[in-house]
Amino acid sequence: MQPRIFHLQRDTDITGVSGTGIVAHGVQWPDGTVTIRWTGDRPSTVTWGSIEDAVHVHGHGGHTRIVWADGQPEQAVPPVATLLDLIDSLRDPEPCRLDHHGDCQEHYWFEPGPCPHARAAALFPAEDEPTA
Q1: What are phi and psi of 60, to 5 degrees?
Q2: 58 near 73, Cβ under 8 Å?
Q3: What phi and psi values does residue 50 have, to the nearest 5 degrees?
Q4: pTM recorded for the entire structure
Q5: I want to staple 26 with a disulfide (CB 3.0 to 4.6 A). Which of 3, 22, 36, 104 is the partner?
Q6: E strand or H helix at 38
Q7: What one-character DSSP code corresponds to residue 104?
Q8: pLDDT digit string (tens) for 40-95?
Q9: Nearest alpha-carbon partner for 43 in 31, 35, 34, 33
Q10: Are strands 45-48 and 64-68 parallel, antiparallel or unpaired?
């Protein structure tokens, strides 16, 4: 995912502070975080963990919309916790069994580099192992 540029279009100013029209410009970064730069007499910049968080606070119940510069609809980026849960649920708990070529026979991984199950297991240390 590439950074995506947008602006906040406020149709109704329910607070009486920002006015209507384009009230802020923003970027959604590849990791899903969002940076918003407010326009007006006292411009400020804020960063949110996700576009959903930004809309929750600044959307004012639909009175402020995100308008993407590329004209495409929202491309949802799952939260990191969701991705980690998915990886954990898909990995095989059985350890890799490498042959004399270094291929994983347990998981039928015959490509260069570590078996994906070994890489996933490294993300989730065993409960009894100390973590750094």
Answers
A1: 50, 50
A2: no
A3: -160, 165
A4: 0.52
A5: 36
A6: strand 34-38
A7: B
A8: 888 999 999 988 888 888 775 677 888 999 887 665 556 677 777 888 888 888 89
A9: 35
A10: unpaired
